[in-house]
Amino acid sequence: AFKAAVLIQQWYRRYVARLEMRRRCTWRIFQSIEYACEQDQIKLHNFFSYLMDHFTPSSSKERDFISRMFISGESFKEAELEKYCDYESLEVPDSYTGPRLSFPLLPDHATALLEAFKQKQQLHARYVLNLLHETRKHLKQLPNISHVSTCYSEEITVCGDLHGQLDDLFLIFYKNGLPSPSKSYVFNGDFVDRGKQSLEILIVLFTFLLIYPKEVHLNRGNHEDHMVNLRYGFTKEVMQKYKVHGKKILKMIQNVFCWLPLATLIDQKVLIIHGGISDTTDLDMLEKIQRNKFVSVLRGKKRKESNRNVEIQELNGESKVEADPAGNEAAPSLSLQPRPAQAPSMANRLEFSKWVRQTVQEQIEWCRRLVDISESESEELTYSSMVSLTDLDGPCWTRQDEWKQILDILWSDPIPQEGCRVNTVRGGGCYFGPDVTGKILEKYNLQFLIRSHECKQEGYEFCHNRKVLTIFSASNYYEIGSNRGAYVKLGPDLIPHFVQYQANKTAHTLTMTQRQGFLVALISRVEESAFRALREKLFAHTSALISAFKAYDKDNTGRITLSNWATAVESVLHLGLPWRMLRPQLVRSTADGMLEYKSWLDDLAMEQRSQEHIQSSLLEVIYRNRSNLETIFRIIDRDHSGLISFEEFHQTWKLFSSHMNIELTDDGINDLVRSIDFNKDGNIDFNEFLEAFRLVKQSQ
């Protein structure tokens, strides 16, 4: 009996270990593909930024279009924004059966919203715009770093990424209770994208923020960025739900996002930021940055820095006109209006500030074209602008310094190794080690950091000797059953208490025995989904894989060793996956340990090929570029109508042709755009955009 028990125990341990190994491999696949996608987004944005930095507009019309391409949230002055998003002009019809809001909001309004969203009802556009307007007014009065104390409530609950998963937010409120004077919450960014109910989450959180402004605190995440929203679904979600007023709602949301606080500090001991820190993180600088300037953290820097240098030259009476290498004078890039008086020395910052204030109204248009400030916020003082004015004797930071501070706290990840280095996996932010964490904690007398930004299998994870806590609140993030969600509660002792959950209605009704079987089936389902995504990724890089395989096939036999297969695949995909361990799921076993790689790639193509029988090489390119193409389409489609107008296409093509040194007349561009408009309706939809790409590839 004893031997039998030991045998059963060994069998069970092996079984559990195999399940855990499968789960971890699946996790690595999902995470590697997710980070590769984020890297693609930043590369794409850097490409557009490069084009903008090296493109000289030939007319004011072209200049306006290029400036609008990435400055969507800053293109309105205060009065213009309110006029454009005028909610009072929208009438709510008598047939509307959804919740109705009146301001100031009351707890009953929040309860009504929660019930309405559970019933899949939609809030009328008037109330959405009104809510965003009031939220923006409130956020503008908040500091960059919110200060929270456990003295005023029994405990503070910190939630991580929600990513549009409303069921997780409902479950948090069900388990932990709604926000109230005795129940404080900190929501640590990434409220939107990926999930299908991002807008509902924003509405609920903003409602509670206005009802309980001292108990509800929101931090900005890296997805509270309109450039990121173009790729990951939030922009598309808003336009689908509000086809008539979606553009106004998006415009207001973009403006609200840039006013979200950057961090929260609990009892001066626990710092909550979305991503992480770096060896240059400076909380004093973060406290004083005008955060609303950074509508998108992904926006280019070179053009902005050059504008700032021009501004400083002009304020000190220096000429902008420089000689080119050939000895000819370059024409000034902007016409200047006469200055009313010589600027005082910048050494006396108080006098310099007064001089700027006296002249700004007379030369407002000139300043807006030269100084890197948000046009929408130039007419009133805000908390951060008042802080910067009261500290005129402090250090003077460049916009590049400020941008890096925000980029690091929104995009960075911790690593177990010492030091701080560029985050090459995500493409933005940095990796910071335990030594960096220790220095920041010691410098600001902190106990530990709470961050989010990374999905964790159990919903939370400690690292850096329990000095960094990652909390992630979106369960089933990659696939149903892929991970738990969690939130953490902190009392006056600041000892973290975790609550884990999984928003899965099916599992709640099962017995213990049934749950074991359900768990195994769930792991198999998640594993299948992960390998399907991985095979799509492999197929999308068929051409590069063939080249890599041929490098190991010197005799052109069409066969390589499985070890060389694993090495070649990693050299192409750069996903950092254990390919030898994953090989049995991707490659059929062979008796001699050799792989016929052309046959293997043909099998991959058969899995992905659609019923339209598109040729394999073409389908490969579309698979590899569809996400980028969709993002490019949305960038060009500035009004988010789902259609590219001839004018939008014309101006964008001028940008591309300038980069590629292609001489094309206006008539030539018009002929090109008309040839892409297959149904001749005067616009280009996404299918026409893809079809043009397909035809060009076929002709090549």
UniProtKB/TrEMBL annotation:
Superkingdom in the source lineage: Eukaryota
PANTHER family per the UniProt record, alphabetical: SERINE/THREONINE-PROTEIN PHOSPHATASE 5-RELATED (PTHR45668), SERINE_THREONINE-PROTEIN PHOSPHATASE WITH EF-HANDS 2 (PTHR45668:SF2)
Transmembrane segments: none
Protein name: Serine/threonine-protein phosphatase
Catalytic activity: O-phospho-L-threonyl-[protein] + H2O = L-threonyl-[protein] + phosphate; O-phospho-L-seryl-[protein] + H2O = L-seryl-[protein] + phosphate
Residue ranges constituting the EF-hand domain according to the UniProt record: 540-575, 624-659, 664-699
Enzyme Commission (EC) number: 3.1.3.16
Class of the enzyme per the UniProt entry, highest EC level: hydrolase
UniProtKB keywords: Calcium, Hydrolase, Manganese, Metal-binding, Repeat
One Gene Ontology term from the biological process aspect of the record: negative regulation of MAPK cascade
InterPro entries with a match to the protein in the record: Calcineurin-like_PHP, EF-hand-dom_pair, EF_Hand_1_Ca_BS, EF_hand_dom, Metallo-depent_PP-like, PPP_dom, PPP_phosphatase, Ser/Thr-Pase_EF-hand_contain
Repeat is among the record's keywords: yes
Pfam families: EF-hand_7, Metallophos, PPP5
Region Disordered, annotated ranges: 309-341
GO molecular function: calcium ion binding; Hsp90 protein binding; iron ion binding; manganese ion binding; protein serine/threonine phosphatase activity
Keyword Magnesium in record: no
Cofactor(s) in the UniProt record: Mn(2+)
Family: Belongs to the PPP phosphatase family.
